[in-house]
Design brief:
With 364 residues, the protein is α/β, with parallel strands linked by helices. The protein has 13 helices and 12 strands. The longest helix is centred in the C-terminal third of the chain and has 23 residues.
């Protein structure tokens, strides 16, 4: 029960697809769930083995991350982006969703005079929800140059997400960092899809220096470890140190075996290259299937989501059609902001044979 006038949580977006699931399940072979970006491919065997052989389950794990986990993260950033990040400016988190949602509340403790969270107009809903749960103003932006000066003055932080979920865009990270430094606003860069950059090389906001910026990285996507809940953040040393200390007091710590598995995953790039090939093949295949079915679809610049526009602008109608005719569950774009209401998001997380099943249904 909520108290009089208390906040009532809105329906969780993906629960709103429950009415369509029976239509998709009615197909021979059942529903092909492309609504949530849940990895379905296996993580490396060595990573799974590390969960049961680390011996780290006996004692309390370090909240900031073990020396090996943090070193693996630092070395990976060096290999992937060519950046040299100090170990002291890198720390672990319990998957990145809890960090994304929890950051505004912690930042408001640090700077109580600020009360506004700026986030992309088309984006993962947790940026907005983190602001709401912190009692902050959630203000969406489509263009940094058009941010109201009053909102910039009140900004507690600015979120960027590149490659973006759901639309797969690549943001101008140097421009975002420069905007943040010019306005004295920390820039929080969610880079969990960086390994799946299709247009050029992957980038991090840390390439332009650590001052005033924080990069957030997850192992859920790159290593198919969403169920393990492991991630890390790195950047401005003063901000990282503040977050480390608050999170110690809050008891936020990835389990010891998880930290061992995460380090093993970050130390290996081969399995990520293999996963890249899987996702690119699926993106290309399903984009062609949808285009042939009269739903023009292009490959994103990054990420593993297709973002086609509903032919008549009615995303819920297209969502219903794909469930009824193709047996596929997808997400209407309004889940990611009203600016996305004319699109659907399709996560190509299922194996190719399941996508082929959707193709046969749509073509019949």
């Amino acid at each position: 029960m909520s108290g009089e006038g208390g906040w009532v949580p809105p329906p969780y977006p993906y629960d709103r697809l429950d009415d369509l699931r029976p239509q998709a399940e009615a197909h021979d072979g059942g529903a092909v769930d492309l609504s949530i970006g849940t990895p379905c491919d296996p993580p490396p065997p060595a990573v799974v083995a590390a969960l049961s052989t680390s011996g780290a389950e006996r004692g309390y794990p370090p909240s900031i991350g073990s020396q090996r986990f943090r070193r693996a993260a630092v070395d990976w950033m060096g290999r992937r982006f060519g950046v040299d990040v100090p170990l002291a400016a890198t720390a672990a988190c319990v998957g990145t969703k809890e960090l994304v949602v929890g950051l505004p509340a912690v930042l408001r403790l640090r700077t109580p005079s600020k009360d506004t969270v700026l986030y992309p107009a088309i984006s993962y809903p947790s940026y907005e929800m983190g602001a709401v749960l912190a009692g902050c103003r959630a203000v969406a932006y489509a263009d940094l140059a058009a941010v109201d000066p009053g909102d910039a003055d009140r900004a507690l932080c600015l979120w960027v997400n590149s490659p973006g979920n759901p639309a797969g865009q690549l943001d101008d990270l140097p421009a975002a960092a420069a905007w943040g430094r010019a306005h004295g606003v920390p820039v929080l860069s969610d880079e969990c899809y960086a390994e799946f950059t299709w247009d050029g090389l992957p980038h991090t906001i840390l390439e332009g220096g650590l001052d005033g910026v924080l990069a957030v990285h997850s192992l859920s996507k790159r290593s198919n470890l969403a169920g393990v809940r492991a991630g890390f953040y790195a950047g401005d040393p003063a901000l990282v140190q503040y977050l480390m200390e608050v999170r110690k007091h809050a008891g936020l710590m990835p389990p010891g075996p998880v930290q061992a598995a995460a380090a093993t995953a970050l130390e290996d790039d081969v399995h990520v290259d293999e996963q890249r090939e899987r996702y690119l093949q699926r993106l290309q295949f399903l984009a062609g299937v949808l285009t042939d079915a009269g739903i023009p679809t292009t490959i994103p610049r990054g990420g593993f989501y297709l973002w086609p526009e509903a032919p008549d602008g009615d995303a819920w109608a297209l969502t219903g059609l794909l469930a009824a005719k193709g047996g596929a569950l997808v997400s209407p774009g309004e889940f990611y902001g009203q600016s996305g209401a004319g699109h659907v998001r399709i996560a190509v997380v299922q194996p190719l044979e399941r996508l082929e099943l959707v193709a046969r249904r749509l073509s019949s």
